[in-house]
Amino acid sequence: MNGAKTRMYSRRDAVATLAAGAAGIAALGAGARLVGAGGSDGGAARRALGQDGTPTTAAPTGPYTLPPLPYDVAALEPHIDTLTMRIHHDRHHQTYVDNLNKAVADLPDLAALDPVTLIQRLDRVPEEKRAAVRNNGGGHANHALFWEIIGPGGGGEPTGAVGDAIAAAFGGFAALREAVEAAGLARFGSGWAWLIVGADGKLAVTSTPNQDNPLMAGVADVPGTPVLGVDVWEHAYYLKYQNKRKDYLAAWWNTVNWDAVNERFAAAQGG
Fold it and tell me: Is this model's pTM higher than 0.90 or not?
């Protein structure tokens, strides 16, 4: 870790942000579904509020934008509640995007990179900007993956090539679940639990703190290409599950989109 040079968000920060975020969403009105990076249905109102719900300057413009959810914010009920999805996507992810754009505003060569490539080249980021790019570039890339590998009608046993690989690596889905949940529960404070494809082409389970990603060279303890990831920051579950991270992790499997995981698995293997 980079010590004092790296800004890390605490559990207290996350809980405080959730509370403020809920109030901010209520103020915007129940009919304001904030999905785009600058959509006409609430983008301006969102940009007028900071992550803590207080007025701020307009969000910086830049190359990175908030991807819209590929499903309705209520689509993952009852496993992930609507308000959590709204705050998580429309406020937390948006904040990572805004701060990343601000960090690369005077770095055109880096700003031209897609976010996944950017977080793999942190060594090219000037030291004074590296923590901001690491935290916010990671937050953007991690959440973009997260929204894609979950969805309505998800869950069940893994299928296709990734199902076969899970059986070969772990002995079956039950063992994978146990490993991912153990990684998520053991992650102190905030972070992610991952299923990755390692350099040897085999599946492995790991976790990272904060918004770090296994693709971050020289940062991740166990490097690899993520094909599945679960967010264990409290902002991902606290409104519904409070401090019961174990219950959240158990319910989260009901949202996993195995087709999307298979696509990522094939891409990671060069398929």
Answer: no
